[in-house]
Amino acid sequence: MRKDTDFFFDNGNICIIDERKLLDVIGKDNLYQWLNLVERSWEQQQYRQQRPETVKQLVNRIKRNCPIERYTKRHFKCLAVEKTNTMRECIHDGMGKPYIPGSSIKGAIRTAILTSIAKDNAQQYITFNGNNIDVNDSDIFGNSANNSVFRFLQIGDAIFNEGDEVATRLVLLNIHGNNGLFDDGHHKDQLVEAISYNKVAYCNIKINNIANKSFSEQTNGETKSLPSVMQSPQSLFKAINEHTRRLLEGDIEFWNEYEGDEFKESYIKSDNEILAIIKTCKSNECVLRLGHASGWNFITGGWAKEYPEFERRILSKARPGNRDRYYQYPFPKSRRVEDDGRILGFVKLSLMD
Fold it and tell me: In the chain, how long is the greatest CA-to-CA distance?
């Protein structure tokens, strides 16, 4: 989304423009002015031209003192210290409520399960096909969507309430020599809309053991039996907690190798706070990481690093063209955090009676 055409700032809030409402306010006779404003705003962003009139200024010129509620979808608190020209929007349903798709939750769980199984024998699950690296997980999950064991893990969307959103600024932590960890290069920071801390949503989670057993028998083994960690919600949650705990402990150890930095201490503190929550989880609770931009280890599970020739055969493909430039740096060397050092994207799952 672009500032002043898709959203604008007002008294510490971000206001998202509703195109239908906006057209009703300005009228069809002024449509060309709006379109011209959008085009000029795009050109200004591309070629750094003088900033044109904003949508808010356009509305006030046509209808003085028009309430912003008349031409916006929603508005919410902005925690960003600096205001940027673009913002990544959180996904919303048809009713305008923010939500986490069940498919995203399932994808993060799949990564946790794969890691718990593959980390002790990474060589078994990796093959090379030219310049491509393939993950051979068919022996674990099945070789197609039709016979995947994840057909039998059914997860619904987690729908939050309107107003649970917040906008915050993500900055880049980057190990790049003696300049500290904060990378303040051009356009490295991102304004993002996210679901705020301590908000609650409900979704359905079901493991269909009976259907899995039936399908496995009917397909003569083409559909795999559920891995042991998927036999019950409790065993699944235990595996998720172990996965998240291992990654957090590895992350703390990784960043402790680097001397003091204004972001490092708050980053490690955030890791430790989440780790403490995991340690207090009951058998019906777990902490799952599913947000974006958290670094390669959290996104992939990091199990491929256990491959015997990781640096030569895998890392060289992950850094093609920049291999000589980055060979002295560890991998991974960057991730995004809030501008106060906190990490986004962790959710706590709790089974209800």
Answer: 72
> What would the 3-class secondary structure string for the chain be?
CEECCCEEEECCEEEEECHHHHHHHHCHHHHHHHHHHHHHHHHHHHHCCCCCCCHHHHHHHHCCCCCHHHCEEEEEEECCCCCCCEEECCCECCCCCEEECHHHHHHHHHHHHHHHHHCCCHHHHEEEECCEEEECCHHHHCCCHHHCHHHHEEECCEECCCCCEEEEEEEEEECCCCCCCEECCCCCCEEEEEECCCCCCECCEEECHHHHHHHHHHCCCCCCCCCHHHCCHHHHHHHHHHHHHHHHHHHHHHHCCCCCCCCHHHHHHHHHHHHHHHHCCCCCEEEEECCCCCCHHHHHCCHHHHCCCHHHHHHHHHCCCCHHHHCCCCCCCEEEEECCCCCCCEEEEECCC
pLDDT digits (tens, 9 = 90+) for 194-230: 999 899 999 999 888 888 888 777 777 677 788 888 8
Distance CA 117, CA 135 (A): 13
3-state secondary structure 84-125: CCEEECCCECCCCCEEECHHHHHHHHHHHHHHHHHCCCHHHH
Annotated domain spans of the chain:
7-77, 99-163+198-350
Can you name the residues that pair with 10 across neighbouring β-strands?
A: 13
Residues in the chain, how many?
Answer: 353
pTM flag (> 0.85): yes
